[in-house]
Design goal:
Elements: H1 6-37, H2 43-69, H3 85-88
Helix pairs in contact: 1-2
C-alpha cells in the first residue's frame, strides 16, 4: 500500500468529513423536526428517531476524530446543529 503524506491524508479526511456531514445535517434536522412537530408519534417511533439522532452524531464524532488523527483539522467545514436537537437527544450537545 502506498504511503500517504500527512497533509494529503488530512485533506482527504477534511473532504470526507465535509461530504458526509452535509447529509448528516439533513438527517439530524429532519429527525428533530419529526420529533418536535408530530405530537401523535408512537413512543416506539420516538425512540427510533432518537436512535437515528444519536447514531448520526456518533458518526459525526468519528469523522471529526479521523480528521484530527490524520492532521486535517486546518480550516474544517463549519456546520451548525439543527434547532432543538439537544432537546430531542441530550447526548447530542456537542457542536457539529
Amino acid at each position: 500500500m502506498e504511503r500517504t503524506e500527512p497533509n494529503e491524508a488530512g485533506a482527504a479526511a477534511r473532504l470526507i468529513r465535509h461530504e458526509l456531514n452535509n447529509p448528516l445535517t439533513g438527517i439530524l434536522g429532519n429527525a428533530e423536526l419529526i420529533l418536535t412537530e408530530d405530537a401523535a408519534l408512537a413512543e416506539k417511533t420516538r425512540r427510533r428517531l432518537k436512535t437515528i439522532i444519536e447514531l448520526a452524531v456518533r458518526l459525526r464524532d468519528v469523522l471529526r476524530e479521523l480528521e484530527e488523527r490524520l492532521g486535517g483539522s486546518e480550516d474544517p467545514p463549519t456546520l451548525t446543529r439543527p434547532c432543538g436537537v439537544s432537546r430531542a437527544a441530550p447526548a447530542t450537545r456537542a457542536p457539529l
